[in-house]
Amino acid sequence: MTEQHEFDKDYWERHWHQAHHDRPGAMSTSPAHPYLAREIGALVPGSALDAGCGAGAEAISLAAHGWQVTAVDIAPVALARAAERATQSGVSERVRWVEADLTAWAPDTRFDLVTTHYAHPAMPQLAFYDRIAGWVAPGGTLLIVGHLHTSEAGEQGHGHGHHPPDEASVTLADITAGLDSSTWEIVTAEEHRRTMPGREVPLYDVVVRATRRP
C-alpha cells in the first residue's frame, strides 16, 4: 500500500529535523537547483517569491544575483538555517523570511518572479501551482520545478531518499494544461533525468517557465 503524506507543518518539521540530523552540512552548503540559473539568469532582477524555500539555497542564489526575495516556508527549523546561511553569504538584507502555510497565506503584492522547487504543501499539487501563479505580476515569470511522475521513477525511487509519493508528483502535461494561453506564454516545458554525486538513483524533474502576458 502506498504511504500517504499530509505535508503539513508537523511533516515538514520532522523532515527538516531528520535532514539536519542525517546531513548537517547539506543544509548549509547544498547549491541551488541547476535549473534556476539556467532559466532565470537572463532576467533583469526585481522582486521574487520563493514558495516553499526550505533551507534557502534558491532564495540565497537569487539574492546574490540582485533579486529582492520573499522566501516562504512552513518549517521554522528550515527557515532558521536558511537565515543563518543568508547572513554568512552576505545577502541577508535582500531576503525576507516568512514562516507561513502556503495553503492559507497570500502576499499583499505581486512579484516579478515566483518560483518553487519541489514544494509539497497540504493541498493538491496542481492546485498549489495554480495558487502561486496568481502571485506573478503582469510581464513576470513563473518557474516551477517539480517531481516528474513517471513509471520509471516510481520503480527506481528518488526524491527525499525515495521516490516521491504520487500526490507530490506531476506530469509536464498536467502543469502546462493549467496555464491558459491567453494569460501565459510558456517559455520552457521540459522533463529531465539527472544524477547527483553520492546518489545511486536518478532524479526525475519537470521544469516549466512561463511569462504572464502584460
From TrEMBL:
It comes from the Bacteria. Keywords: Methyltransferase, S-adenosyl-L-methionine, Transferase. One of its GO terms (biological process) is methylation. GO terms for molecular function: methyltransferase activity. Gene3D superfamilies: Vaccinia Virus protein VP39. Transmembrane segments: none annotated. Residues 49-140 form the Methyltransferase domain. Signal peptide: none annotated. The keyword Transferase applies. Pfam families: Methyltransf_25 (PF13649). This is Tellurite methyltransferase. It comes from Micromonospora saelicesensis.
